Amino acid sequence: MQEQQRPLIQFERVEYGYEKGKPVLRGIDLSIRQGEFIALIGGNGSGKTTLAKHCNGLYKPTSGTVRVEGKDTVTMSVAEMAGVVSYCYQNPDHQIFQSTVEAEVAFGPRNMGLSETEIQGRVEEALAAIGLIQLRKEEPYFMGKGTRQKIAVASVLAMKPRVIVLDEPTTGLDHHGVREMMALIAALHRAGHTIVAITHDMRLVAEYAERVVVMRQGEIICDDVPARVFAQPERLAEAQVEPPALSRFALEAGLTEPLPLTFDSLYVQMAKKLQERGGR
Ligand SMILES: Nc1ncnc2c1ncn2[C@@H]1O[C@H](COP(=O)(O)OP(=O)(O)OP(=O)(O)O)[C@@H](O)[C@H]1O
Q1: In this protein, which residues make up the domain named ABC transporter (predicted)?
Q2: To test the ligand 1 pocket, which listed residue (16, 20, 24) has its Cβ within 8 A of the most ligand atoms?
């Protein structure tokens, strides 16, 4: 079996409710494999955050099972799982509470019970990867949203998780901040991290994700590569999701190959089509 194919996180018939008799997750079956870049999409309240928080055991299923590297999350603490799966909060202020950037980034590794030398090495490495080394002694509280979001990602990275779950990592960032954050996430993916990202930005899904999981009222209604997911506008409308402009263009132009939905790939397909027509 290829490394890419090994399930790292496995949901089986997972149900979850915050209140009795009001299920929020309804029979989730999902396998997340090593090296994937998954976008989790769906309307407000469809259960994305609730599902994401099951990936690292922040929440445990009401029924069904979630297995991380084959182990039932019911039997593991979040700290135990931190080296495998880490969750990055939608609002960095829910995550950041130390008085300096380096103390914040050191918090996770310290919680994992690592030695001081190992902790310092990891802090250095994570801050360098995110490009924040010069801010290590600064106080995170006064920094802009984009920088606080990056500190939150560095804190997660310092735990060296195989899977990074990001809850709306670009919300509240300006265009430049969105581009920077997505470039950073793409680099983490290239470096071997499995990425699960919740987002409402379909343009980013089309551009970066390799697989899209669509939720509606606590269920997964679609799970496929972006081009095939976005080729089902009626289905997506049920989940209050509108396909990005590029995929609508691709559909109308009859470009059906499930390539990444970027201008470049559509251009290549268009050129091929025109060549075929010219050759006839
Ligand atoms: N702590 C909580 N207590 C009670 N109900 C909750 C709690 N958190 C979420 N819910 C409810 O569970 C449902 C799913 O919420 P969840 O946050 O998982 O959805 P979501 O798809 O992430 O939404 P959004 O896109 O708005 O962030 C919603 O009806 C929400 O009101």
Answers
A1: 9-242
A2: 24
